[in-house]
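[stage:ingest] chain + small molecule (fe (ii) ion)
[stage:ingest] validated
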Amino acid sequence: MDAFQHTPEEIQQAIQQGPITTEYKADRQALITQLNRLRSTEIASHLQYKQHAYMAVSLLSPGLKGDFQAHADVELRHADILAERIQQLGGVPVFTPAEIAAKAAEVGVRPEQGATLTDMVVENLLIERQQVVAYTALIREIGDRDPTTHRLLMEILAETEKHASELADYLKRSAETRS
Ligand SMILES: [Fe+2]
Ligand SMILES: [Fe+2]
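[stage:predict] done
[stage:export] tokens:
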């Protein structure tokens, strides 16, 4: 690569904008705000699953503690993927607890800890479904204006739907055993 064929302005612009080119069509600031909101829901979800893993000591469902822990790890990875993308787009990933709590609450997400295992699974299912709504809406909104963010969100959405499905299956199974 011969950088000296380019004007100093072109080189400055390349350094300033990194991956953002004239073909980038999304509203970057608005997208960063939305990605930070989603990141906050992932951190809230991570904390909720961790809490449930600490509290789920019932002999009735020995597998549930491990399931909560496994989901907690995935949520943290989702928060990481979003942070990396926010940084690439020139934004700052949300990181203070107060801001995270406020942004997650904007979409109705707050960590909760129910009294029973079933309550906890229901709480997790509800967060996952709120996230499915938020991711699906944003994916549709982005369309082809930012293919990389689009793809990352699709991957997270698929895992979020998988979680929701697993939790719903668990609740269906335990309802059958009770009846
Ligand atoms: Fe997640
Ligand atoms: Fe999840």
